[in-house]
Structures are given as structure tokens and as C-alpha cells.
Amino acid sequence: MEAFVRGRVEYLPTYEAMQAFTAARTDSTADELWLCEHPPVFTQGLAGKPDHVLDAGAIPVVATNRGGQVTYHGPGQVVAYPLLDLRRAGYFVKEYVYRIEEAVIRTLAHFGVTGHRVAGAPGIYVRLDDPYSHQALAGPLPADDPFRGLGKIAALGIKVSRHCTYHGVALNVAMDLEPFVRIHPCGYPGLKTVDLSTIGVSTTWDEAAQILGRKLAAHLAP
Asked: Which pLDDT value is given to residue 65?
């Protein structure tokens, strides 16, 4: 899988380019990984509900064909789009999602941060009280906080067409997080969203993109 750092690019043309790339693929088309940064945009997944966008303001809302609900992309976030032939890779969608999440967890570990999965809520989360803690999350999910003090640091939404993937994962590095309070992130009212900067990790977009790109290439290999 070859990685292409596309840098800051508009969301909609990138989405359309992913669709075109996937539609034109043949069995011999090499897999690619696009690493991008987008200007401010809210994107809705197929399950997205309009009332999960509380106040878009001047930020555009783009309907997409990925899974999941509404999320935000903006400067300071690394968005990774694996364009992968799953049949050739030799595994199915559930494992694909697991491998993407594992690549994010390993990227966070590079910075000393512990990433957590939450059953039924794709993406990666960190403990708000101690992002570096390895302590297991224990006990039942409290009704008033199903995320048990976690904040979301990476959102995941994918599409599979003819066994080939597009869309992908977004890792928050050093962002203006205010737009996340204008939505129910990924459909969850009140879900806290964090980035590496707010939990005390100082890095650049380029460094985070490079590390995430390497981890994804390694973990998505057949």
C-alpha cells in the first residue's frame, strides 16, 4: 500500500476522487492510502440524522455514503483514507475496522497515550482524567455517561464497494474543537471530543500523519 500525503484539500472533491478511484479499480489496481487535512466541514453518514447537527453556522454540511453519523473535519486533523481491495487482502470488514483502530491505538502509543475501544461505538477514545493510563475500563455503563469518562480522539466511517474500501479514519491532532459542540458527535449527545494537543501532546500534523500512515500500512497488510 503506497501512501500519498495530499495535504490540505477540499472535502467534496476528495470524496468524489475516492469514488472515482474505486469505480475504476481492476483486480490489478494497487492499493493506496491518502493522508489529508480538510478545511472546516461537517459530514453526514448514511445513518445521519439532521437533528444531530445543532448549529452548522457557516460550516458546510456534506451528505456522504459512508457508515456512521455526523462528524467534523477541520485543520489540525489527520484524515486517512485507505483505498484497499479487501478480497486481495484476505480479510473481512469487521477485521478491517479492527485493524484501522489498532493502527490508531499504536499511533497514540507512540506519543505515550493509551487508546481505548468502546463496544458498539467505532473509533478510538482516551480517558479524560488520565490519557496515559493503562487501567482497564471496568463496571457497567452508567446511564448518564455511557462512555465512562472517555473522550473521542479518532472517528471512523467506511464504505465498501465491490470488496474495495474508501472513506476512513480521522485523528484529532491540534484542532479548534469548538465545532464539535455544534453537533452530536457520531450521533452521541454530549460526547466529549479531544485532540492530542488538549491532552498534553505536542506534535505537528506532518509527524502525526507520517506515523499514522506507517501504522496503517503495517496493520492493513495482508
From this structure: 92
